[in-house]
Amino acid sequence: MVRFLLARPIAVLMVFLALMVFSVIVFRTLPISLLPPIDVPQIVIKVNYPNASPEAIEQNVLSPIREGLMTLNGLEDVESKAGSETGTIRLTFDYGTKMELAYIDVNEKIDRLTNSLPSDLARPQVIRINTNDIPVVRVQVIPKPGFDFTEISQLTENVLKKRIEQLEGVSLVDINGKKERIITVTPDKAALRALGMTEDNVINAIQFGNEELPGISVEDGQFRYYLRLATRVDSPHDIMKLPVTSEKGVTVDLARVAMVQYETNEVLGHHLFGEKEGLVITVHKQASAKMNELLPKVYEAIELFKADYNQVDFELTQDQSVLLNAGISNLQTSLLFGGLFAFGVLFLFMGNYRMPIIIGISLPTSLLISFLVFYFFKISINVISLSGLALGLGMLIDNAIIVLDNITRKRLDGLPIFEACVQGVNEVMSALVSSVLTTLAVFIPLVFLSGISGALFFDQAVSVAAILGVSLLVAFIFLPMLYHFFYRKKAVQEEKGDDSRFFKIILKGYKSLFKKVFSYKKLSFGVFILLIPAGLALGYLLQVEGLPPIEKFDAVVEIDWNEPIGVEQNKDRVLSILESMKGAYLKSETDLGVRQFLLFDGESSLQEANLYFLFESQDSKSLQMQRLQELVSGNYPNAQISVLDAPNAFDQLFASNIPFYEVRWKDLATKKPIEEGRMDEWLSVFPVKEFSRGPGLQKEASVIFRLDGGKLALYGINPRDLQEQVKQLFGVYPITDIKRFGEITPIKLKADKTNFEQILNNNFLRGKDGNEYALSNFISFDYENHYKFVTADKGGLFQSVIFDSKNPTAYNAEIINWAADKNLGVSFFGQYFKDQERIKELVSILLISVLLLYFILAAQFESFIQPLIIIATLPLGIGGAFFILFLTGTSLNVMSAIGLVVMLGIMVNDAILKIDTINRLKEQYSNLPVMEALDKALYEAGQIRLKPILMTSITTILALLPVVFSSGLGADLQRPLVFSVIGGLTIGTFTALYFVPLAYWFISRRET
Known about the structure:
CATH superfamily of the largest domain: Multidrug efflux transporter AcrB transmembrane domain
CATH architecture of the largest domain: Up-down Bundle
Largest sheet: 9 strands, antiparallel
Helix content: 40-55%
Oligomer: single chain
Structural class: alpha+beta
InterPro entries: AcrB_DN_DC_subdom (IPR027463), Acrflvin-R (IPR001036)
GO molecular function: xenobiotic transmembrane transporter activity
Number of domains: 4
Number of helices: 30
Keywords: Membrane, Transmembrane, Transmembrane helix
CATH topology of the largest domain: Multidrug efflux transporter AcrB transmembrane fold
Radius of gyration: 37 Å
Pfam families: ACR_tran
Number of strands: 30
Protein name: Efflux RND transporter permease subunit
């Protein structure tokens, strides 16, 4: 096949040019995003039920919804959490469930359940979680002084949002911090009482005046007309003209008994940029959009906004394209330095300028053609797939060097250039194919990891397979063609001096050390064998984590004041903190209280605040965060504060809302939460001393109103009338809405903002005797601590504690006995169990990888013993990587693990070619005595493969070395990978040069 193709160089060249042209076209259409569009198998249902307690939300809303959703296909787990006025249900599905269909099913079931839910409850909001839901950038909208906030909110909602949504590639625009305009009606209680009226008379007058007939029509001869009441109101002026009539028939204009005006609706949350209140717009991209093309469009749109809307200041924050740009920059750096160092190393070893040019052409060619595979597998260009390409670049250079070196060797043996190209490729073809297959055997099984990890590895596996497959195509066809083109006019005699003086010195040193190693075979082999457990033992000393610690200059502070404060008090506290830290940060933004984002799947309450800070340096960040913690804990001792690195897209994808280890229990007798006093007593004897209360055990202060039914009956007052008046007096009572052209303006009854005791004393109900009685006669109140949340899962209501221990299961038996004594059903839950399951899964997959590796090598060498030599080299390389990671204080994380795969792929490649060369030389010397032929084959194979092994290792190490001395997000991500590769290849080079021939010698001696 190689001979046939090389005999037609023009046809081959045209095919490669055509592939490159198609690749360029395809590359322009590939979506560019931060992460693959992964469906997280979770759906969140959010409920907002004003003025409802956690118990009422659980009983009346969440419980019916949970029961109605139990029959969903693929449903793995259900958890709900009811708080004051809000509730959430988190549905977790089996991975692989079609989330588009699951989302439709959930919405259909919610619609069917609507009739069984409270009539005044807004439809529950269903949120589907997807990696594309992570906003790519946040737009800060800050009203300038003197401009009305509600008008800026309307501008943001009706104009800015629409203009951003029209940008190509934008899927959704979300807003937080909006304020809406309402019409408030404030009754004049003295005037109402003087006229014998109540607030109900005012409410009825407004509702009647805003009534609309439901589709009634009349005939007038041949014509039909729809009726419309002329009494509909459109403004406060219209409302004040409405007639209010008492039970005795007294009628006055509403303006005489109430004040009507436009006001800003009561807000449950605020957004701050710095110390200024404003709005924030989050921009989400479509799955098929290119992030690097979308972000410039957003920046351009903001510049236009600044010119068009001078009543507002704009600023962009938290640009998530930084990570993607870092990945692309790292790939470009790898290509640039890979090419430069390949040129330098080849020149040092060969004194030749043609080889680097050939490799310089082949590298971008392979990379470009790989994007065709991306297109057919529907893979986007993202950080994961780019890291796969970077992973394959090392082996791509490796294959190119091996093929070119073997062709050169054949040429030096006196073969004509065409024959040298054909035989040079054929000789290493099977070994290179095996080396690629073994790399894929190590890597591709990781695709079968469950959950998000497997989905992420799919993109990486496809990109690795693509670049390695293309590299073989280029190495077997394109490289020999280029070699033929560049060397066709060069005589064989001219090539004899291609080995540089530098390489001759190295060769001399190699021969000297080789003789010493083989003079003490048993000792040398024993040293290598001892290095295996010693190197692997270092792995126990390494810290294990997900992503490497990245130097971040931004941080997020989450504060729960843990006090029954309102949103305005929350805002005042945050502003005082920002004021005390003024000048210590570059930027800050805060979301406090209840958030208005449609896609926000977390929980928020009036007492919570989420602050984001951007600092000049890591040191400044550490110092100021410590200062902030001291400030909050010193002034607000009840507050719970946590300081985190600002989450990027990786963190948001991998972040788990599951506690590490949670002990849950249910009261088997009552099926209700255990009362506070008894629970506190039981927790004092809980077997684990260091624990934190789960959401179902957290407490908050509450005011409890109790109605005196006896007095109500005595004075002839309907309890419903009393309840209705309480609703009107506390908060803002909705009367009706003015609807026109899609704009809705609520009309609400405004209550007195005074102490609730005064409200109870100053408001009255009329009894059956016609006299008025203060509400305080029928209502008593107490201050009590109650559970802040009510939590439930598939089995019903539960309460829990959370703890973190190296061996949490050690307490299980004691906890089960503790629960049994109290008639509690106990269960254990948490990330700990998922991690254990994942580790078992990973170990089994790696065992399968090693078996596949063995089968491929056994087929390659037609031996059951020789593959064991290559498998034995793997722990040596891993030990070398662990040694460098340990020396540099680097953790074992996702990136260092990828580095291990890169390093093992190159090590296996070198070992395969070394053994393949030894086997061929043994056949050549078959006429000699067995041991003499073996010694000669080992010695010559070492010299033949010395140059490609050294060039591959040195080129790869030098290409990655600049990352060690670089700074920034990209370098922080790649540095663990680089340390793994450098450590592994340093040991791996000596392994291929000395351990492989030693092991081969011992095995062959036993076979003979």
